[in-house]
Amino acid sequence: MNVTHIIPRSKEDLERRRRAFEIVAAATAGMMGRTPDYLNVTFACFAGRADVWARRGNEQGAANLVAYQKHQAFTRAYVKLLFAFGLGHLIGTATGVTRFDHVREKLGQIWNLVELTRSGIVAAEAGSAPDEAGVWCPDERPFLALRGEMPKWMPKANELLQLVGGGGFMCTPSEADVKGPMADVVAKYFQAAGADAERRIRLFRLAWDFLGSDLGRRGELYERFYLSDSFRMTGVAYNLADKTEAVELVEQFLRD
Length: 256
Fold this sequence. Notes:
Helix content is 72%, strand content 2%. By secondary structure, it is an all-alpha fold. It has one domain (3-255): Butyryl-CoA Dehydrogenase, subunit A, domain 3 (Up-down Bundle). Strands 1-2 form a two-stranded antiparallel sheet.
């Protein structure tokens, strides 16, 4: 049975399933949001909480399903950000621009997004606990935070990647150019400080598919809105946030 069909009964089950999500997402660099593993998780949720889905109204069932699915969504987002970081690093290394501080800053910003996403997933697993039916659910708090920020982070990562590549995205030769009568000219003038012409062209073509192609641009639009409007989800995070500890920190100074 595919691991993504598992109804998790422990933290280890969540971690095992997350690793399966990473494998699926890596096959498409995180570009495909509704891969079969997404539906597998959906139906595993149906099976794991059939009692909830039997209730009239189904509001709580919908809420549980959303929480259950977020684990897959943010694993895919992590892989996609990781791919963007890898692209930026290889492009910067090939063209020699990683020696510049402002380029390292941009690559560092992409890495920050990668690491913050990974940390949120790990925190959700570490804080996981069983619900009343014994289904092991991740801590929702990190996912609430990520749900409001991810629609901002994905376009930001794309913007930073564009700035790292700069003008290299323009007029990139096609395969026909590389193998055609101008092959020697292409090989001479499209080589870079850290890569021959073919590798440089492959890198920029791949990056353009990720950023500027029809699929890439649709992907950015998808990331902006598939979790609903970012401002709405950030507001939801505030509404659902446990404010007890934060308020008490302030109140102790008001009392003293």
